[in-house]
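Why this split exists: single-chain examples teach little about how molecules sit against one another. For that reason, every record in the complexes split bundles all components of an assembly together and asks for one structure covering all of them. Below is a record exactly as it appears in the raw files.
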Amino acid sequence: MTEYGYWQDVPTRWKDNDHYGHVNNAVHYSVMDTVINTWLIERAGLDLDGAGPIGLCVESHCVYKASVSFPDVISVGLRVAHLGTSSVRYETGLFRADRTLVAEGTFTHVFVDRETRRPVPIAEPMRTELAKLVNA
Amino acid sequence: MTEYGYWQDVPTRWKDNDHYGHVNNAVHYSVMDTVINTWLIERAGLDLDGAGPIGLCVESHCVYKASVSFPDVISVGLRVAHLGTSSVRYETGLFRADRTLVAEGTFTHVFVDRETRRPVPIAEPMRTELAKLVNA
Amino acid sequence: MTEYGYWQDVPTRWKDNDHYGHVNNAVHYSVMDTVINTWLIERAGLDLDGAGPIGLCVESHCVYKASVSFPDVISVGLRVAHLGTSSVRYETGLFRADRTLVAEGTFTHVFVDRETRRPVPIAEPMRTELAKLVNA
Amino acid sequence: MTEYGYWQDVPTRWKDNDHYGHVNNAVHYSVMDTVINTWLIERAGLDLDGAGPIGLCVESHCVYKASVSFPDVISVGLRVAHLGTSSVRYETGLFRADRTLVAEGTFTHVFVDRETRRPVPIAEPMRTELAKLVNA
């Protein structure tokens, strides 16, 4: 758990549990996306309603290791596995409070112009901040 | 079931069922909203990405009569209970395939300017179309 | 904001924002439900996977006062407006960090036998705990 | 589009669109899960509330090719890429009405005993039905 450069707690919600009584597999992606976007906004200058580029998800993957259930809180670790010209691949670890590994997920953003939705290079200060999470 | 002027089927999804094995209460609102916005787009000229006014929800209410569970399909009836200058109150009925009443919900939109988010009068052709659903 | 006997913070998620760039109206119900069930589990003895009664939502209502948007944190106040034999009506207030009132919602649970889904009286210790939230 | 042995249409919902005005990446997984479970229930004998084994997701993956937006309907093709003793890996294709490929996803179920949550062999009639979707 020391391998991630940024950590955030995401509390589960009542509705996250599905018919089988545990957090539904799609929720894990929503949790990853929440942590990534919170970090982008708070640390790397992403402005949701501004004019700058936005990150669109082009690929995601998750391996589920243990179940988690409401009202558990999920601790999410975030690092950057690859930082390209326009894209970034994040790696995340989701843990229960007792440090049980719940899931490992990857998530790839391509940054695009907000209007044309065409790829654009990742600019400063976002590039420098993303680089800090590489090999964290 | 003849009291509604517009009908639409909304299939449930796996994730709609919660820990208690039935469609979660918040999903009913999402189902109503889906039917209302589908109708607004297809029949009344709402353009999600255009420059015209948008409808924001200012009040909603639901009474739950019977449970519904994935993979049930929910049949939703829609009518207009009140059509004001800028606002409209919809009434909906949610039914299972066997015609069991699942829930009755109300949903109030205020139409606002997309940028300022200030109320604006409901204009044509939307007003005429909404009027057709009154006392349907 | 002193009128609620229990408070809990619920962080928004990326996916809560809808096409209009603010937290979707159905999410408010999910937030209320999360706070109510967290309280029931942590304070009032609800056991999600046990054999005891469960609370099913039979009616809900929300008035929306101001928008809220990811990554805002929603502070939720909870009180009990009416405590009956088998049912309880909760009242909630949702606030932004700057204390702006986002929404006021009501939510009614009927407690039922988990298997038969027939109403049963609310027993101890839940009744005493719920009573503490009345006129809080 | 002839490579999938089972097809199902899943209409989008208003709430599927996120802040960027298209269906959120986590929704694609919910759509795949819906189609897989509908098929399991209707064709392969899965009983959500019975005593038999259930399929838990242990790995999922998605590559996003084109955006899709409410009120689009998503056509989902399903096939089986690998059928093991206890596990099955599904492959799905998500398409817009104009046949544009929206996303390709994989989803792996391990079938487990409902109570112990330990893997069990996939039995008949499910095995025969799953085999029909291999190399479909």
